[in-house]
């Protein structure tokens, strides 16, 4: 049974189906890639599944629960966490506090004033060392470079201890060393039986990391299977190259 799936999921803008009756299934212990040309519906799909955009039809199934509406405030309770194309951090607090907010209270003010135990600090330290940000722990998030901000957002997502991780273009614009750090994190999550959903344009990374792949175009699924299989399909080549 998949951890997360959708049935006939629809999201429309002005009568245009950005997500057009989409059936997808994501399993634990797998990295599943969502690929497709720009505007194919990948990010809209993730935004709809996580409640940022209201769904206009269909169902979301999480852990046996069927939903026709997802509230963003309830996403964490269903074991789902995500990243964004543009990192969404708490800019005016330190790198360390950005992690402690997630490890303690879900409420920002509650987390900042909660008494942090040695366990909280140890966990936060381990996560920051894993992504190479320990030396930046006392810097405010707003002072980080683009790549460091990406790493901190991924560190925050990992801190959620979720079952389903949705990564929206986590590798975009990064140096090879940072790409390798994030790749290792995704593999570790898979090894811990989490379901990892990866939106990515770099087909070499998709081939390297993904166990399964869905290709979207015009809001519809046009191919699915292993990366090597789907990337050879004529309809996929046409979607990308327009031939």
UniProtKB/TrEMBL annotation:
| Keyword line | ATP-binding, Nucleotide-binding, Transport
What InterPro entries does the record tag this protein with?
AAA+_ATPase, ABC_AA/LPS_Transport, ABC_transporter-like_ATP-bd, ABC_transporter-like_CS, BCA_ABC_TP_C, P-loop_NTPase
- Return the GO cellular component terms, semicolon-separated: plasma membrane
Q: Where is the ABC transporter domain?
A: 4-243
Q: Give the GO molecular function terms.
A: ATP binding; ATP hydrolysis activity
Record protein name field:
ABC transporter domain-containing protein
